[in-house]
Design goal:
Layout: H1 5-11, E1 14-18, H2 23-27, H3 30-37, E2 40-43, H4 47-55, H5 61-67, H6 73-98, E3 104-108, H7 117-131, E4 136-141, H8 144-155, E5 160-165, H9 168-187, E6 197-202, H10 204-217, H11 220-223, H12 229-244, H13 248-254, E7 262-266, H14 279-282, E8 289-293, H15 295-304, H16 316-329, H17 333-367
Parallel strand pairs: 1-2, 1-8, 2-3, 3-4, 4-5, 5-6, 6-7, 7-8
Helix pairs in contact: 4-17, 5-17, 6-17, 7-8, 8-9, 9-12, 10-12, 12-16
Amino acid sequence: MAESRLQELSARGQSVWIDYLSRDLLETGELKRMMDEDAVVGVTSNPTIFQKALSQGSAYAEQLQELKHAGDAKEIFLHLAVQDVEAALDLLAPVHERNPEDGYVSIEVDPTLAYDTEATYKEAIRLHEWIDRPNLYVKIPGTKPGLQAIEDCIAGGRSINVTLLFSLEMHSASMEAYLRGLERLVEAGGNPANVRSVASFFVSRVDTETDKRLEAIGSDEALALRGKLAIANARIAYENYLKAFSGARWEALEAKGALPQRCLWASTSTKNPEYRDVLYVEELIGPHTVNTMPEETIQAFEDHGEVSGDTVLDGVDEAHRLLEQLAAVGIDYDDVVLTLEKEGVQKFSDSFAELLDGVRAKCEAVTA
């Protein structure tokens, strides 16, 4: 059987994950099919994804009937989500046994806690203790308050997916939090070989926000820069990753079994229909990375995606020049990425509120 395009991508050292999870995906066997045919070796989820899954169909009705008096809406939701996550973890367990860097499923802490270090840490530990699987990632937003919670979780031997990263500064800070956490773990006698982390660097939304600002400026020079920052941003992030996980400091941890915090490209669907629908996959192919894709991007890449080499290494000098060109036409990079971080937290928080409203409505419906 000929290799699929996603299998070609995997052969270049990039792990193919999907960014959605639902009970239907599990019960219909679709996730297993994607593992077999589309090289899928991991799953990420977030409140928006669970909100969508819960709102469609009746897959959760029976469990909701059992849980309707189990506590508040958040506790009921967590029981629903944990059942899906555990089923996916079991399905992916053989993948994790073959390659401990893959086979992961992610569950996210309550996004309304994104600016509360202690509450984020406590919820992350609770989720790890509740699910207790070696291939679980708990997602913590890469906000400034989140960084300490990330470091503390790593120091405690817990694997973390750092999410909602848009800026090069915060990506570097997340790598530093991982390194400090590993160093603390080693100092306490722990084994860093049992801890993993990925840095979920969001891609397409960077172009969406920057293009809007370039169009508002409206000059020929500004308009010529549309659709370029997202890929440039990710390529510089990968360059920083290569630097962070090299040299004497890293080699000391590596000698004890530690592995780097991989770059995970998130938000890789193309929002602008004028751009190629697999743009954020084709241009960010590289070893020791992850691309977590929505369903439409998986299908599009299998149909017409091109694997042409380690494209994440291309044009890094041009990427740095692009930042200078954007500044010259009036784009404030720091403001773009800070705006995206705040909007990302707010969107996930809004989805979480909508999700809990949906849980309450579903509980009322099954009671009726």
